[in-house]
Amino acid sequence: MRTRPIPSTGAALPVIGCGTWRAFDVGAGDTERSRLREVLDILFAAGGAVVDSSPMYGRAEDVVGDLLSAMSAHERAFVATKVWTQGRAAGVAQMQRSLDRLRRQRLELMQIHNLVDWQTHLPTLRAWKAEGRIAYLGITHYTAGAHEALAAVMRAEPIDFVQLNYSLEDRAAEQLLLPLAAERGIAVIVNRPLGGGGLIPALRGRSLPGWARDIACTSWAQVLLKFVLSHPAVTCAIPGTSRPEHMADNVQAGSGPLPDPALRARMIADWSRR
């Protein structure tokens, strides 16, 4: 799998990861968890590393922590989660619970989810980073309506990561956030790279265009992910799934050629004419 550098340190990050919203909010049943373990096995075997979660994702943090421990895979994972509450004390308590649930004493990335009380949490994240409890800090949002608010923080504060929505059907991030991230040296994690699950059903039944072979794509999921990764400001995409066959498909987008500017323009035009 190809990697891209995290601008603030130069460390290499694999370009395909795994989101855990809904997909990892499961009980203790062997059937569900064994399937999720296979999802992570496929991700790591392909060279992926990023596993993104949040305390608002139900039991996902617990499930990730249990699985990584059972797999002895903590060293292979770049684990990201979020703080999503009001007030300093509540934020510290929530982040400590996340560490406990993820079976970690140190996390790769802590993010302020949806910018909730970010002015309060950012100094705490800076202190945790200085203490070595987290390696990187970031901010997130999942709606285009929040792009101006994200941009204001990106301009004003030194942050390592921003997580945002971007896909072939939702390209608003190209206007402001992606150029700003490149300018400010901020790594970009893309959520909803498959349109929140809506793009694949919209393309179901349609044959892949001939140009898909030019970028070594054998599925629409790979086409959509390679479109996202072809933007030079994007560091990693985190499609969420609970199905091993979907993860096996997704990770294929992490290698091989990416669309050049001319093909990107053609993909946009084809999507507009669908």
TrEMBL record:
Pfam families named in the record: Aldo_ket_red
Domain spans labelled NADP-dependent oxidoreductase: 16-260
Source species, domain of life: Bacteria
Name of the protein in question: Aldo/keto reductase
Organism: Vineibacter terrae
